[in-house]
Design brief:
This protein has helices at about 10-25, 50-70, 85-90, 105-110, 115, 120, 155-160, 170-180, 205-210, 220-230, 250-260, 275-280, 285-300, 320-330, 360-380, and strands spanning about 1-5, 30, 40-45, 75-80, 95, 140-145, 145, 165, 185-190, 200, 220, 235-240, 265, 305-310, 335-340, 390-400, 400-405, 410-415, 425-435, 435-440. The protein is an alpha/beta fold. A five-stranded parallel beta sheet has the order 2-1-3-4-5, with helices on both faces. The chain has a five-stranded mixed barrel with strand order 16-17-18-20-19. Helix 10 packs parallel to helix 11 (about 250-260) and helix 14 (about 320-330) packs parallel to helix 15. Bound molecules: 5'-deoxyadenosine and iron/sulfur cluster (SF4). Iron/sulfur cluster binds near residues 151, 193 and 244.
């Protein structure tokens, strides 16, 4: 029996898929090389934008064709799902399963003998406790929390993933210690809003307290967690995503600056450069506060590379308001930006507002920002020329060419006859492009 997982969306979904793989393999499934050969297909869906939802609807007809040839094929839908799509897609899939119910999947799938080996998975109620089948052996995704309490008016996450739940700190640290022992070089801490992490941390109790069963339960915040992870012995990088500007504390800036393993890269979604739009988005900060935050971060971490998320064409966004986002882009000079065209999401507060900006105008606004981004990234990247820096090799592009990442999350293309995948190496930067750098191995 073979399985195939199709994953849409963010790193959190990718990490969830790694846990789904563990569960399926525990109950006897093996990975299928392609969907055509699979007996079980799991679609891990994303609902953040309609385009991702449409792709799932597109897949359904493909599955039907495979099913016509292979009657035993089972299909499962999971992930970030809106109630409306859940209902619509329910009769197109054999099962629609909640990701938070992952420990119960073996029982639901009822794979006879295999259920027995899957039993140990049923002992946990918490799906994040399931050991992932890591898809990389040098870069690992480690969720520290799930859900979101912020209710930005355009966003489905609080509805699809529910409220914030933080993983206990010891569990996270234990997972990271194991990963470092296995040779992982990069840890991505994941959460919809990592700054609001508040996880249990039970310090080792004194013998007297243990005997009296008296042990205080402590909670630690994100900067404290970063410091504890930074103390894990080994040579590795710590990255995290994503952060909300509204609760980005000085304590966090100090932790980032002081922890040598925390890399100089930050995704800080601005979403808009206009105060009125930010208010309508329920983002709880002003443009001035965002700029001030960037100033503080850059003062403490001068070589920080900043990326952002932007939505163009939010309901009611006038040309003048969009120009304010253009101004923010010109002023901050981001190193990367994920620019999205506003997509109304059923059930969210913004879906009740009139979607006033025509598609063509959204396309234009996206292009305008992309052009500014290209100019800014080229300018920022040129500063790297001549520098000797450490990179982590991530990808083989062709037999002799490789792609690595700097601590600042910049791509570096270089040549080597040796297999250097997953290794830290030093390169001299020789050339800069808007989307990356070229280097020579030292
Ligand atoms: N339309 C467009 N983009 C969206 N995002 C979230 N919801 C929407 C939406 N309804 C973007 C935001 C967020 C990123 C993950 O996706 O910029 O930061
Ligand atoms: Fe969505 Fe806002 Fe929460 Fe991010 S912070 S997941 S954009 S509601």
């Amino acid at each position: 029996m073979q399985y195939r997982i199709i994953t849409f969306g963010c790193q959190m979904n990718k990490s969830d898929s790694e846990r789904i793989a563990t569960v399926l393999e525990k109950i006897g499934y093996k990975p299928a090389p392609a969907i055509n050969g699979a007996d079980l297909i799991v679609v891990n869906m994303c609902s953040v934008r309609q385009s991702a939802v449409d792709r799932v609807y597109g897949l359904v007809s493909k599955f039907q064709k495979i099913k016509n040839k292979k009657s035993g094929l089972k299909t499962i839908l999971t992930g970030c799902l809106l109630r409306k799509d859940k209902k619509k897609l329910a009769n197109r899939f054999d099962l629609v399963l909640d990701i938070a119910n992952l420990p119960k999947w073996p029982k639901i799938l009822d794979v006879n003998s295999a259920v027995i080996s899957g039993r140990e998975l049923l002992n946990t109620e918490d799906y994040l406790k399931i050991q992932p089948k890591y898809s990389s052996n040098f870069s690992a995704l480690v969720p520290i929390m799930t859900g979101c309490n912020n209710f930005c008016t355009y966003c489905v996450v609080p509805y699809t993933r529910g409220r914030e739940i933080s993983r206990p700190a010891e569990e996270i640290i234990c997972e990271i210690k194991k990963l470092i022992k296995r040779g992982h070089k990069e840890i991505w801490l994941l959460g919809q809003n990592v700054n609001s992490y508040k996880g249990r941390f039970n310090p080792v109790a004194k013998k007297r307290d243990r005997l009296n069963k008296r042990q205080d339960i402590k909670f630690i915040n994100f900067p404290q967690l970063l410091r504890k992870i930074n103390d894990v012995p080994g040579n590795f990088w710590i990255r995290f995503t994503s952060s909300h500007p509204k609760d980005f504390s000085d304590e966090l800036i100090n932790a980032m600056a002081n922890c040598e393993k925390v890399t100089e890269y930050l995704n800080l979604p601005a979403q808009s450069g206009d105060n009125e739009i930010l208010k309508k988005m329920n983002r709880s900060y002003t443009v001035a506060q965002y700029k001030n935050l960037v100033k503080k971060i850059r003062k403490k971490i001068p070589n920080i590379s900043l990326s952002t998320d932007i939505i163009v064409g939010f309901p009611g966004e006038t040309k003048k308001q969009f120009e304010n986002t253009v101004n923010l882009f010109k002023e901050i000079k981001f190193d990367m930006a994920y620019i999205a065209k506003y997509s109304p999401r059923p059930g969210t507060a913004a879906a009740k507002m009139e979607d006033t900006v025509p598609q063509k105008e959204k396309d234009r606004r996206e292009k305008v920002l992309t052009e500014i981004l290209k100019e800014n990234t080229l300018e920022n990247n040129k500063k790297y020329i001549g520098k000797e820096i450490e990179i982590l090799v991530e990808n083989q592009k062709s037999p002799n060419s490789w792609l690595g990442k700097t601590r600042t999350h910049k791509n570096v293309l270089f040549e080597s006859k040796k297999n250097l995948l997953g290794k830290f190496i030093r390169v001299k930067i020789t050339d800069a492009h808007p989307w990356g750098l070229k280097g020579k191995i030292l």
